Amino acid sequence: MNKQLKFITRTVFAMFIALFFAVTMIQFVTADELRANELNGRTVKNGYKVERGSILVGGDPVAFSTPTDDSFRYVRQYSAGPLYAPITGYFSHSQGISGLESAMNQELSGIGNAQFFTRIMNTLNGVAPQGSSVETTIDARVQEAAAAAMTEQGFEGAVVAIEPKTGKILALVSTPSFDPNLLSSNSNADIITNYKQLEEDPTRPLQNRAIAGDLYHPGSVYKLLVAAAAIESGDASPSSSFPNPAQLTLPQSTSVMQNASRTACGPDEKATLEQAIVLSCNIPIAELAMKLDPDAVSEMARAFGFEQDLTIPLTVTQSVAPTPESDAEAALSSIGQLDVRATPLQMAMVSAGIANGGTVMKPTLVEQVITPDLRVETQFSPTEFSKPISSKTADAVTGMMEKGVSSADGLAMKSAIPGVRVAGKTGTAENGTNAEGNDLPFTLWYTGFAPVDDPEVAVAVVVEDGGGEAYGYVGSSYDIPTAIGKRVMEAVLSE
């Protein structure tokens, strides 16, 4: 009997210990994580009991709470809603939260650890609870220019602009966008109806193409990473030359690679790496990639951020750069095809790193958090993300990118800005064939930075479906996105 009592006593004691540990974990260790979980409906409901902080652009609120006479007490509103929707996201009764509304929910709702003592003092003083405001890094003029350049002709895609020296995101546009006000009213019936319409929209307006979604084949903008890997390792320089056929049969394959021009890369028997970048030729880049260590380009891509976890503080889908398993795969991967996929943010980081002398700064959307009594609660400080290449390599790649803009035959020439040294690279990515065997429309890219001598902005532009119906789904990679990139850079440089 005593033995059985001891066993029961010890079991009950162990259960109490387990319960104590579980309660401690929930109440103290994982409390913030559980509160921040977008599936936690109580977090959203509790958020309507306080005046939620604003999301600011240049000091002006683009997301804010307004008092109401209903049981919710407040309603969330968005000025210029579609313009900033990829940044703010939405705060909804029935559909949860997204964007900065989710990523910065603790600060906006006043439940973060940094506001603990403020909450106690407010309770003692009878002050109504209130959340802190979040000041973004977004430049309103740059955001407006990027959005206008995409929406005026109905382009689907994304634009990201980064300040190379700090990592501050100056613009983050995804089109088509949506109006967060449709999901943030105090009518659940309206919210559900509106959300269903947005979710069923074939253009996928709820998808943030700048940092997430299905990702894109980067096409020829990926050649910048091939060049960086080769120059950094000492295996090549801009003047290195390669055989210059109009067609290349890939090793152990019947597949034939061609340049976009369907001709050789220039008039000579040999083509240099610089020519391949300026004219965006596929074959010399593929020949170079097949000579490099199989891991070289993929490792360089990872050093720039591919396949790395990243929050800005929005969660960014990892870009993908698998190590090729054969020379044929190395050749196809080198021109941004096969299994290589990237977000526009990632390609903006590549240009920003090259612009910043080989140092990639961690991108961020948040400048600072401001308490209701206007104190700075949290201040952004530039943080180095990685240093994938030396300044010497960065200068070499920059020189080739600049000639791609300044040369009369450079494919990035339409991004030239009078009186400004601009570096740029275009890209066209093939997307395979449909069920009928017809080629799918191309994805068009541009990435670059300016001014070369003192970079203020790095940009990446992606346009889906060759520009869409207005361009017969076959728009040029050195026309549409290049003009958009120029417009965004000009918006930064004009300030």
From TrEMBL:
InterPro entries: Beta-lactam/transpept, Beta-lactam/transpept-like, PBP_dimer_sf, PBPA_dimer, PCN-bd_Tpept
Domain annotation Penicillin-binding protein transpeptidase: ranges: 157-472
Pfam families for this protein: PBP_dimer_2, Transpeptidase
Domain Penicillin binding protein A dimerisation stretches: 52-134
Protein name, UniProt field: Penicillin-binding protein
Lineage: Bacteria, Bacillati, Actinomycetota, Actinomycetes, Micrococcales
